[in-house]
Design goal:
heterodimer, A: mainly alpha, 71% helix, disordered C terminus, B: alpha+beta, 6-stranded antiparallel beta barrel, 14 strands, 14% strand
Chain lengths: 285, 533
């Protein structure tokens, strides 16, 4: 096609998309620049740093006031434990909804969907008061403990995940169960040897999505974790903002890279599956 | 494998097969029951009836699911159900309960606890303060005092922190032990503390007291004490539900979770159900109502604008990329996913730095282009623009992904037919593409509205609801939405925690969400009946 026609049909599209790409990458570029910049404040930051240093990263793990290493560990621990248990319990429930016939099955499925209308974090006041009361009796599982927040997250997305997993299990031919049953398999064996292995791909995707949601969860973590040692990264990073913010810009950028890199890479690698799972009605900002 | 055309063996009630799995089940359920039974005394002692009921119900559920021969699906559902009931369903119900109480700082205890605290208050009588000789012992019940008056009378008993409740019969019988002259090193099971141990507790010594009939003995140093004749100030009368104040000689009556003496409220108060007071305050109290309405209006504007902006940008980009001859689709897609992939709390904190009025890069950029810096986060209007701008950045990738998929699903024949009939590209977009897009993505747009309606993390981390509205009776800011306003009221305020008022607002958010969902459901139904897809 002629150059003129190319501009009219295709060229303008690239211009629009490139402008949008700049908008999308603007904060990312600044973070990458500030993280390796030896000058550690907001105003002196230049896009192309005069030097190159890893100090911003090493400092993160040296400060006692802002124990970034502890926060990182807490974030990963809470998200991994809660997300894996969550997916396992959701898979068990899905099996019942998909394969067994029982009274209240339809009502149960409907309630699972209805509950999802109300995001769990809206109960933050009740969850805070519940944590206080549990803490009076079992201090190890009350307010300001990782145990409690893991249990909270564990309950959080079960309903929705069970719904997605059930949808997948419904596509597994029921003849497989029936032939296994003829061979004398009990329901537990049917689940653990046939259904669960076949559902693995969908369980992996749901695990990743649940992990990311828990890893990024803010309001409950902020409400239920009270001391610096127990913070997850989402809560801890605020300390960089609250005090001497201009002086902590480099550290914050380094922290943002450490916090976001694994998630962004996972997204880019498993783009199709994750986005497929996420856009099935769940909404992220 | 044979197909099950024939008769499948009927499933036996596997609960009573004595397989290893059955024993494992029995052990686990037994352990859960044992743990709960062990917790009962503590729960009762703490008067945690709510927790008692909640845990008891779930323990019963587990027992039924695993032990009853009639449960088949229960076994599979119980583990998940336990966590869903305790941490998802119960908080909703409990929020409703808290919203009809007066639960806030100053009213967090039960009435029994308040009465106990008040009855422990003592009146100091003048002329007290006889000096005594003191020795401190350590034994099975903790520290014990041996105090000797100048006339030789001795008191020996278990000491307590002065902040704790008095010990009834703290004195220990010392009949037959010689307590004249040098004090013995051992009395019963108690042994006298040596110098080094005394030094170890010297700092806390003044907080220790020994209860004696009609008063207390308070330690002053490790070797001397004072006798304080103390009397009880308050006395509660359960018959009439009143409290007598001996110091001022008045009777205090109970009123909405506080004792009121001669029109004066006595702190602390306790929790009572006050009905719809909190809701009445939100709508009836002029000062709270003004703040609430301001927040509510902005909340709606913010959510609508967020959906509009992200939708427009996402659709524009999806449209621009939607062409057979476009190169670099995967490249653009990957770039647009990045804002979506970065955990929101990280990018919001970064944006906060970039938007800083004095040091931020955004203003530096504007100034280098010849403009003048903007007070992004400190001026009400600019802060609202900043919040919407950052939310557009956060949310457009999602819309872009959705719209890309929805655009591909629109059949080309329709567009081509319109083109043949002489419709312009814009006309095709307006009359064919957009309506079809709206039909297929309406539930997601409404979902996005509901999400942004409660987009706490954006507001809280970017502006913290600020800038503050000057002269507001409750802490409220220009960019506060209901959920961030509630958060500050309930758990994050320097003015104490108002759990009850916060819960009342949360309940209203629940109502709003229920309405949005119901609307969404009917709206999609109607669209489908119009466009019939």
């Amino acid at each position: 096609m002629s150059a003129k026609r190319w501009i009219r049909e295709i060229g303008w599209r690239h211009i629009v998309l490139i402008i949008a790409a700049f908008f999308a990458l603007y904060p990312v570029v600044w973070v990458l620049s500030a993280a390796f910049n030896p000058v550690d404040n907001l105003s002196a930051a230049r896009l192309i740093p005069r030097g190159f240093t890893f100090d911003n990263f090493t400092e993160l793990f040296e400060s006692d006031l802002t124990p970034f290493g502890t926060w990182l560990f807490n974030s990963w621990r809470v998200a991994i434990v809660a997300a894996s248990l969550n997916v396992i319990l959701a898979a068990l429930a899905s099996f019942a909804f998909s394969r067994l016939r029982f009274r209240g099955r339809r009502a149960g499925l409907l309630s699972l969907l209805l509950i999802q209308v109300f995001p769990q974090f809206l109960g933050f006041i009740a969850l805070f008061l519940l944590a206080q009361q549990i803490g009076d009796i079992f201090p190890a599982a009350g307010l300001n403990t990782q145990t409690y927040i893991i249990m909270v997250y564990l309950g959080g997305a079960i309903g929705f995940n069970a719904f997605l997993i059930k949808g997948f299990m419904d596509t597994i031919p029921v003849e497989l169960d029936e032939s296994a049953e003829v061979d004398g398999a009990n329901p537990w064996q049917i689940f653990s040897r046939i259904i669960f292995p076949l559902s693995r791909p969908v369980l992996a995707v749901i695990f990743i999505i649940t992990f990311i949601n828990i890893y990024s969860e803010y309001i409950l973590a902020r409400t239920l974790l009270r001391s610096t040692q127990e913070f997850t990264m989402a809560v801890g990073l605020q300390l960089f903002v609250e005090s001497n913010y201009s002086a902590k810009w480099g550290n914050l950028a380094a922290a943002a890279i450490i916090g976001a890199a694994p998630i962004v890479l996972t997204f880019l690698v498993a783009q199709k599956q994750i986005i497929g799972g996420l856009t099935q009605g769940s909404v992220k900002g | 494998m044979t197909n099950s055309e024939g008769v499948t063996p009927k499933r036996s009630a596997s609960s009573f097969s004595l397989s290893p799995g059955f024993w494992l089940k029995l052990v686990v359920v037994g352990l859960i029951d044992a743990a709960f039974i062990a917790a009962i005394p503590v729960l009762v002692a703490n008067q945690s009836w709510m927790l008692f009921g909640l845990l008891g119900l779930n323990v019963l559920l587990i027992n039924w699911a695993y032990l009853s021969p009639r449960s088949n699906a229960g076994k599979w559902l119980a583990p998940g159900l336990v966590f869903v009931t305790i941490f998802v369903v119960w908080p909703i119900i409990y929020t409703g309960y808290v919203s009809v109480t007066n639960w806030a700082t100053g009213n967090v205890l039960s009435q029994q606890q308040v009465i106990t605290n008040l009855e422990n208050e003592v009146i100091r009588v003048e002329g007290e303060g006889t000096n005594l000789e003191l020795a401190i012992y350590d034994g099975p019940e903790g520290l014990a005092f041996l105090a000797r008056q100048p006339d030789g009378a001795t008191y020996f008993g278990i000491a307590r922190q002065s902040s704790e409740e008095p010990i009834e019969d703290a004195l220990i019988d010392t009949t037959g032990i010689d307590l004249t002259g040098d004090l013995p090193d051992v009395i019963n099971d108690y042994s006298k503390l040596g110098l080094r141990e005394l030094l170890g507790i010297a700092g806390q010594i003044e907080a220790l007291v020994l209860d004696i009939p009609g008063g207390v003995i308070q330690a002053q140093t490790t070797s001397s004490a004072r006798l304080i004749q103390a009397g009880q100030r308050y006395k509660y009368d359960a018959e009439t539900d009143t409290l007598y104040d001996a110091l001022r000689d008045v009777t205090c009556v109970t009123e909405r979770g506080n004792f009121v003496c001669d029109g004066q409220r006595l702190d602390p108060g306790w929790r009572v159900v006050t009905g719809f007071d909190n809701y009445q305050r939100i709508f009836g109290d002029q000062r709270i109502r003004a703040a609430f309405i301001k927040v509510f209006n902005w909340n709606i504007v913010f959510a609508v604008m967020s959906v509009l902006l992200t939708f427009s940008l996402g659709l524009a980009l999806a449209n621009a990329l939607q062409h057979d001859k476009m190169r670099g689709k995967a490249f653009y897609r990957s770039i647009f996913i990045i804002p979506y992939a970065i955990p929101a709390f990280l990018s919001i904190i970064v944006w906060r730095g970039l938007l800083n009025a004095n040091f931020g890069q955004v203003n530096a950029l504007i100034e280098s282009l010849g403009g003048s810096g903007v007070p992004w986060l400190t001026d009400g209007t600019w802060a609202k623009i900043a919040v919407l701008g950052v939310n557009t950045w956060l949310g457009f990738p999602y819309m872009f992904l959705i719209m890309s998929g929805a655009l591909q699903a629109i059949p080309n024949e329709l567009k081509e037919a319109a083109m043949v009939d002489g419709a312009s590209a814009w006309r095709v977009f307006r009359s064919i593409t957009l309506p079809l897009l709206l039909v297929s993505t309406a539930p997601l747009l409404i979902g996005s509205f509901a999400f942004n309606f409660n987009n706490f993390v954006l507001i809280f981390l970017l502006t913290d609801g600020g800038p503050a509205v000057i002269g507001a009776p409750v802490p409220v800011g220009e960019t506060d939405i209901l959920i961030s306003f509630t958060f500050d009221l309930a758990v994050n305020s320097g003015r104490g925690n108002n759990f009850a008022l916060g819960s009342a607002i949360v309940i209203m958010i629940f109502v709003a969400l229920a309405a949005i969902s119901a609307f969404s459901f009917r709206f999609t139904k109607r669209l489908e009946s119009i466009y019939g897809n």
